[in-house]
Design a protein that fits this description.
Elements: H1 2-17, E1 28-29, E2 34-35, E3 43-44, E4 49-50, E5 58-60
Signal peptide: 1-17
Keywords: Antimicrobial, Disulfide bond, Knottin, Signal
InterPro entries: Gurmarin/antifun_pep (IPR009101), Gurmarin/antimicrobial_peptd (IPR024206)
Length: 61
Amino acid sequence: MRFTFFAALALLGTAFAAPTAPTTSTATIPAGQTCKKDGSMGVCQSGYCLQDEKASSGVCK
């Protein structure tokens, strides 16, 4: 009985600690608009943000 309780508790703890899937509500940026390669401004529709090393932002390609 105790084992079943602890097993269920461990299973629930693992489920709550698991990372969630990325949400689909993240903003998509059209080509030619500014972006950041870390994705903090949103994700380019093409998935490619051209940003120079020292630049604060880049351009979606």
